[in-house]
Amino acid sequence: MSDITLPSANQPTSTPQQAVAPTERYTLPALSYDPAALEPWCSAETIALHHGRHHAAYVTGANKALAALQTARANNDWSSINQLESDLAFHVSGHVLHSIFWTNLTPDGGDRPQGELAAAIDDSFGDFDTFGQQFTRSALGVQGSGWATLAWEPVGRCLVVGQIHDHQSTIAQGSNLLLVCDVWEHAYYLQYRDLRADWVKAFWHIVNWADVERRLVGAVLQSSKVGLFT
């Protein structure tokens, strides 16, 4: 790799340029169900606002951060690099988490997982009830805004429950998110006010276990193919 020559502090910066607007890399995914389909557990008004305003804002923010970073590179102006990279991480994380969240929900949800997912839960937590208690306590215990998560941890090859505070994760690096429960107030306040526990209880009635299992199978296969943790 060739050496990179950095300008000295006394060198003039390059003439500011207008960066070509990047392609809109992030787009709001459509819901696979009508906003009213998750009632009575989650109201149509909540879903419409959550998806159409809050999730959309993360998509807009992610594309805006990319554009600002492109402009910074074009102008060789790194004065706001920390903030811009933080903005990108925050908004992309919000977009990714919500995209998983919508597919984790279904009008035909509830009950209990079957097949490989059920076996993995038993192996990692002992039984489904114990997993459910830990996940629920994790969701209720998030301080402020955040998420409860179920993830596949490829080093130990097991399922783990964790928390995401705002959009910063407390799960191990490299873990694959399988199930997420949004406990930011915008996810439930219109219907449940400040009663987060009621929202988390309702959440179990609309979990799409088929989607969670699909994600698990893909994560296990990916970690096996890549071979980084074997």
How do the strands and helices of this protein lay out in sequence?
Blueprint (H helix, E strand, L loop, with lengths): L43 H31 L6 H23 L11 H11 L2 H14 L4 E8 L4 E8 L2 E2 L6 E7 L6 H4 L3 H8 L5 H18 L4
Antiparallel strand pairs: 1-2, 1-4, 2-3
Q: What does it look like?
A:
- The chain has seven helices and four strands, in the order H-H-H-H-E-E-E-E-H-H-H.
- By secondary structure, it is of the alpha+beta class.
- It has two domains: 41-103, Helix Hairpins; 115-226, Iron/manganese superoxide dismutase, C-terminal domain (minor pseudopilin epsh fold).
- Strands 3-2-1-4 form a four-stranded antiparallel β-sheet, with helices on both faces.
- A hairpin with a 4-residue loop joins strand 1 (146-153) and strand 2 (158-165).
What is the architecture of the largest domain at the second tier of CATH?
Answer: 3-Layer(bab) Sandwich
**Helical region count?**
7
Helix content: 40-55%
CATH overall fold name of the largest domain? minor pseudopilin epsh fold
CATH class bucket of the largest domain: Alpha Beta
Supply database-style keywords.
disordered N terminus, Helix Hairpins, 11% strand, minor pseudopilin epsh fold, 2 domains, 47% helix, alpha+beta, 230 residues, four-stranded antiparallel sheet, 7 helices
Q: In brief, what are we looking at here?
A:
This protein is of the alpha+beta class and 230 residues long. 47% of the residues lie in helices and 11% in strands. The chain folds into 2 domains: 41-103, Fe,Mn superoxide dismutase (SOD) domain (Helix Hairpins), CATH 1.10.287.990; 115-226, Iron/manganese superoxide dismutase, C-terminal domain (minor pseudopilin epsh fold).
